[in-house]
Amino acid sequence: QASLGAGSIGEAADDLAGSLAAADRDLADKARDAGRNPAGVLSFLGIEPGMTALDVIAAGGYYTEVLSIAVGSEGRVFAQNPLFILKFRDGANDKALSQRLAGNRLPNVIRMDGDINALGIEPGSVDLAITALNFHDVYNRDGKEAAVAFSQAVMALLKPGGIFGVIDHEGAEAADNASLHRMQSSLTIDALDSAGYRIEAISDLLRNPDDDLSQMVFAPEIRGRTDRFLIKAVKP
Q1: Radius of gyration of the chain (CA)
Q2: CA pair distance 133, 168, nearest whole angstrom
Q3: 15-33 residues labelled b (16+ CB within 10 A) or e (exposed)
Q4: What's the mean per-residue pLDDT of the chain?
Q5: Contact 84, 115 (CB under 8 A)
Q6: How far is CA 92 from CA 26, 59, 86, in A?
Q7: Do 168 and 228 contact (CB within 8 A), yes or no?
Q8: Distance CA 194, CA 83 (A)
Q9: Which residues, 6+ apart, have CB-to-CB distance to 151 below 8 Å?
Q10: Which InterPro entries does UniProt cross-reference here (predicted)?
Q11: Would the pLDDT of 84 be above 90?
């Protein structure tokens, strides 16, 4: 497919970046774009207008809105959060997502509060799912088995050939990554592989060699600029 070529990905990213810049988005979201490169990320993953997308553990919905713009009026986006994520920090994510969606502001977004296993989304109906900076929490809290089960729950919702994009903070092999809110990309790849995905591509788009992986991701010196991996996994 020509759309998978580096030049085509670059053109798609430029087009989406223009749409994101022109859209009536919150200024704080636009300020985050430089560090997160959402247009580059979604173009690498293969987002297209008209797709059905799933933002897994959407939190306040930064990526939900980006996906909403990327899939356009013919597409739709499910914004999923477990209930504990919505209650976290006095309901900060719940408030942020509610504000983002207020007044039918993003009419192609469907909010889904609940566990990934119990959403009522039709199995095999999603073209592209993404989880940004969440995989480490599942893995570090409950281990590989839980991360595999989480990945398989997402896979059940994907169409054959559907894409699962995973972004997370890179961790060093010998570090206490749970306390740093990081994880090794090799462990993520292993979990996705064990879940039955095919790893199609890994991107350096969000890499930062200046991050020595020793600091907690919320440390002021590195927050928003961590060394991050981006994995494109595909349901066979």
Answers
A1: 17
A2: 4
A3: ebbeebeeeebeeebeeeb
A4: 95
A5: no
A6: 16, 9, 7
A7: yes
A8: 27
A9: 164, 191, 192, 195, 197, 233
A10: SAM-dependent_MTases_sf
A11: no
- Reported as a pLDDT band with limits 50, 70 and 90, residue 2 is very low
Q: How far is CA 114 from the centre of its chain?
A: 17
In degrees and rounded to multiples of 5, residue 114 shows phi and psi of 150, 175
The residue extents of the domains of the chain are 2-234
Q: Is 202 left (phi over 0), alpha (psi -120 to 50) or beta?
A: beta
User: Quick check: 139 and 203 in contact, CB under 8 A?
Assistant: no
Distance between CA atoms of 189 and 233, rounded to whole angstroms?
A: 9
> Which residues have C-beta within 8 Å of that of residue 10, sequence separation ≥ 6?
43
The rounded distance, in Å, linking the Cα atoms of 153 and 181 is 23
What is the model's pLDDT at position 87? 87
* Straight-line distance from the first to the last Cα atom of the chain, in angstroms, rounded to the nearest whole number: 17
User: Does the 2-234 domain belong in CATH 3.30.360.10?
Assistant: no
